[in-house]
Each structure stands twice: as structure tokens, then as C-alpha cells.
Amino acid sequence: ILVVHPSVPAKTLKEFVALAKQKPGALNYASSGVGSTLHLTGELLKKRAGFDMVHVAYKGAGPAIAGLLGGETQVMVGAVPSTIAYATAGRLRALATTGAKRHKVTAEIPTVAESGYPGFEVNWWFALLVPGATPKSIAERIRNEALKALQHADVQTTVVRMGLDPETSTQAELAARIKRETGVWAGVIKEAGIRAE
Which of 17, 37, 64, 158 could form a disulfide with 30 if both were Cys (CB 3.0 to 4.6 A apart)? Predict the structure, then answer.
């Protein structure tokens, strides 16, 4: 979810991009560290929307949010669970979500794609992986048990509250997703000149 400090006059992502274009490099965006998903998402947004802002790397999401709340930075792309309460309380302003579609927890907030940047999609996702040498029967049992767990109402509620939409895939589908996203993020890293610290 893209959130801004209340001192930023933009009420929409389009207004924010226009502001950033008027003042190249004057806005600072917080991330949880160099190479983090938050950092890379900020770089991808800059590239797609054609504006510049300065990256400020913190040592974790908590310090990054504190920096944004304190006005050290003006914008951040953060996880729903760590930012939505501040947006709801008016301490931050939510401009857009980064997924392909609106999420149940943030249904009133438009996506980046809906805000004028079609095809922009960054999803927070998790996968259950096992070592390559794991026997197929054991890997299948682990997958089946995980699928059963996802059917429990309390697990579904917790996952949705975390800002995630439970979905399943085959091993081949997951491998294809990892390959596709590795290509996207490798391009962002190369173009932005990001180096490990």
C-alpha cells in the first residue's frame, strides 16, 4: 500500500506523481532496507510513472514507518498490516495499493493500475518450499496439509487481515512465477543501480 505523510498535499496517486515531477528529487521515500521489497517497489513505481524521489533506507519496516510518521520521509510503500491502522487513524494517507485488484481490507483504496498505471502489480506473497531432495510423497503430503490448513476459517481470517489473498498453485506454476518475478526484479535492480550493502 502506498502511503504518504499528511503534510503531502496529494490526495491521489496522480496528484502525488504530478507533485514529484514538479520537484524532482525533493521527496524522500522510506524503505525497510536496500534491496527490500519496499525499496524495489518504490524504484519500479518511479520507473513506470517517470518521476524521481530519493530512497531512504531504514533498518527494518518499523523504523521506516517511524521515519514516515515523523516526517523524515514523505512516502512509503508498506505492507497492509503495518500501515493501514495509521492510514485509518489519519496519521498517514493511503493513495493506492500495489496489487492487481483491490483487497478486502483496503477495498476503498484504488490500485496503482486503476490510478493510471495499467499493468503495475506488486503482490506480497509467500510460498511453502521444501529442499529439492525431499521425496515427492513427503512434498505432496506437506502441500496437502497446508491446503487443509488454509480451509480453516481462523486461518483464512488471519491471512486476509495480513493483507493477503490465499491462493494455491502447482509446483510448475510456482516455479514459473518465481522465474517471471526474478526477471522483473533483476531488471529493476539493474536499472536503478542497486548494490548489496
Answer: 64
Rounded to 5 degrees, what angle do the CA atoms 157, 176, 194 make? 90
Q: What is the pLDDT along the chain (197 residues), one digit of tens a residue?
A: 999 999 999 999 999 999 999 999 999 999 999 999 999 999 999 999 999 999 999 999 999 999 999 999 999 999 888 898 999 999 999 999 999 999 888 899 999 999 999 989 998 888 999 999 999 999 999 999 999 999 999 998 888 887 777 888 888 999 999 999 999 999 999 999 998 87
The residue ranges of every structural domain in the chain are 2-123+185-192, 136-179
Q: Which CATH architecture has domain 2-123+185-192?
A: 3-Layer(aba) Sandwich (3.40)
pTM (two decimals): 0.85
Q: Rounded to the nearest 10 degrees, how much is the dihedral formed by the CA atoms of 133, 135, 138, 143? A: 60
Residue of 185, 193, 194, 197 lying closest to 44 (CA atoms): 185
- Which residues, in sequence order, are bridge partners of residue 30? 56, 76
75-77 and 2-4 beta bridge pairing? antiparallel
